[in-house]
Amino acid sequence: MADASLAAIAHPARTDMKTPEPVRTRQPLASRRYALEIRQHMAWRWQALVLAIALLVGLAISAAILVAAGVPADELANEFVMQTFLDGQNFRAVLFQAAPMILVGLAGAIAFRARFWNLGLEGQMVWGAIGATAVSMWQIGPENLRLPLMFVAAIGCGLLWVLGPAWLKLKLGVNEIISTLMLNYMAANFLLHLVYGSWKDPKDNFPYSPQFRAFERLPELGAGVGSAILLAGIVALLAWWLVGVSRVGLYLRFVDANPRVAHANGVPVRRTIYGAVLLSGAMAGLAGFAVAAGQEGRLTQAFYQGYGFSGILIAFLARNNPLAATVVALLVAALFVTGRSLQVFYQVPFSMVQLIQAVIVVCVASSDFFIRHRIRRLGADSAEAA
């Protein structure tokens, strides 16, 4: 007993030794927990990177579809780049096709910035062309003012056609998606009534209006390039100034972020939305004028088909930016021109081109998820609490 006591005194218990920590085992994959969070902000360069990756994925899927349809893989770059942009005739065709697409893309972008989902772009295009053709048919004004009067009539008709849905939305709360979409059918049927009825060309007896006179058509700039592309470029610059520089653009940013907060801070929300929607209808009507007076030279029964979807696609890909919408419209026009070439040389149906558009839209829409959200791995304590 005494020996034990002496041993305890001679060798006291050490207090400086650390207690061993429990061994951490690696958490199995099935038990890990993740949370989906909303991003407060993502830098523009990262947003551009995400969008670029989404576009590359969409183009890769599109290339696989075309190869499966019978287009040789080594000819894809030649068809989409060399033949489209570096061949003079094809590039003029791209500019020819891009002019109304730029206008209708801007029309969609301006309305979407005000949180007004204008799906009636085709109907507004139809009425713009009808207004311009009416000036020609009834020979309103002197010859040297005939083209400006057609220009003004197209803007006015497109503007008036979207005024009803805007009033229904802001006054009665009617969903603008339904009202603008239904008005497309009304405009299309009225167009058929005209070209199969009193406006039918008496010379050919075909369902289109008489041909416009030379002074009623948009002139060429030279080298086969029509002035419609110049008109579209001027409108794009004005839209960029309106959105990016003017006070109206600041109001639109407030309305787009949160209309209720904007109203509480004194922003004229209703007037801003009215102005943006009417401007959208005017641009769509101007697109109808560009097709009728710049491409067709008369009012035809199906000139508007496909432009509504293209305008929504352009506005969406450009994220409602006017300058970006101009670039995207050129690319979409190049896709249409290339699609016609693929139809001729490889017997690819035009529906395949529309499928490619849809694939790109889905990929870009998916990228928006990663821009607005992030996935965060939860810690062990958080996972156990959850």
> What would CATH call the class of the domain at 103-349?
Mainly Alpha
Averaged pLDDT: 85
User: Could you give a short account of the major beta sheet?
Assistant: 2 strands, antiparallel
List low-pLDDT spans.
6-10, 382-386
Rg? 30 Å
CATH topology of the domain at 103-349: ABC transporter involved in vitamin B12 uptake, BtuC
- What overall form do the CA principal axes indicate? globular
Query: Could you give the count of β-strands?
Result: 4
So, CATH architecture of the domain at 103-349? Answer: Orthogonal Bundle
Helix coverage percent: 55-70%
Number of helices: 15
The class by helix and strand makeup works out as: mainly alpha
Order of helices and strands: HEHHHHHHEEHHHHHHHEH
The largest beta-sheet arranges its strands as 1-4
The end-to-end distance, rounded to whole angstroms, is: 56 Å
Proportion of residues in extended strands: under 5%
Task: Describe what you observe in this structure.
The chain is mainly alpha-helical and 386 residues long. It has a domain at 103-349: ABC transporter involved in vitamin B12 uptake, BtuC (Orthogonal Bundle), CATH 1.10.3470. It has 15 helices and 4 strands. It has helices at residues 2-10, 44-68, 76-85, 88-113, 121-137, 146-172, 176-195, 228-244, 247-257, 259-264, 269-296, 307-317, 322-346, 350-372, 380-385, and strands at residues 34-38, 220-222, 225-226, 373-377. Strand 2 and strand 3 form a beta hairpin. Helix 4 (88-113) runs antiparallel to helix 11 and helix 6 (146-172) runs antiparallel to helix 11. It is globular. Residues 6-10 and 382-386 have low confidence and may be disordered.
